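Open question from group meeting: does this chain pack into something compact, or does most of it stay loose? Before anyone orders reagents, we agreed to write out a predicted structure and look at it together. Recording both the input and the output here so the notebook holds the full record.
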Amino acid sequence: MSKTSEQAALTFKIGGDLEINRLGYGGMQLTGFGVWGDAPNRETAKAVLQKAVESGVNFIDTADSYGPHTNEKLIADALHPYPKGLVIATKGGFDRTGPNQWVTNGDPDHIRQAIDGSLQRLKLERIDLWQLHRFDPDVPVEETLGPVVEAVQAGKIRHVGLSEVGIKEIERAEKVVPIVSVQNLYNLGNRKWESVLDYTARRGMAFIPWYPLASGPNKLAAKIREIAEKHEATTAQIALAWLLKRSPNMLLIPGTSSPDHLQENLAADQIVLSDEDFAALSE
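Structure tokens returned:
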């Protein structure tokens, strides 16, 4: 692969106009236990965010529910005023009642407050990518997305994405507002959303796997170890390299609170798996 095509393969345009590096950063781990409260060591957390951007990351994923609210404030404290080209994606649609407690809330008033709150905490005039964290079974998504449409029209949101959805949910939401991204659980060991990934690739939407570092079931362990040794890489790097090769619309947001682990993750885009390696891990 030539250097030019290799570079092209490592970027993706969200919504057709926001070109980002496919290896980004997810902020969720920069919170307390159970994604509750602020980062235990705030200065280290800020340093990790700053190091990520210095290292070429220009896509950061967060949510109003991380903390709640503390993660968005931390990102602003660490990085504002933001460098040109940095895309910060956030999400709304959960209430938090305690550590590891997540309550879906698709009430339009809640969504409206979530959008305005994120803008304020992130010190943004416009959110480049706002994602609905979950469909609320008790509220029609058409109602949930009403304030999102209003925010797009008002210039508060540039693009809209969804999380943990199937194809039917994507198509239902698209009748209300254009959808440019889907963030679902997906990794080497959990490929439940395979059909959604392929659907988004055909549609030119970004697919953002959460929990991307899971390296799969024990039956894969020996293969991953063998391939990692061949590339002088860690198993986590191989898991990320597999995702990058799996589909060109895949945007990765591995999170960490460790500067060293951050550098390890970001080096994954230097690993080019052979078709043989990829096939061995894809069984």
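Observations to bring back to the group:
The radius of gyration is 18 Å.
The chain has one domain: 3-281.
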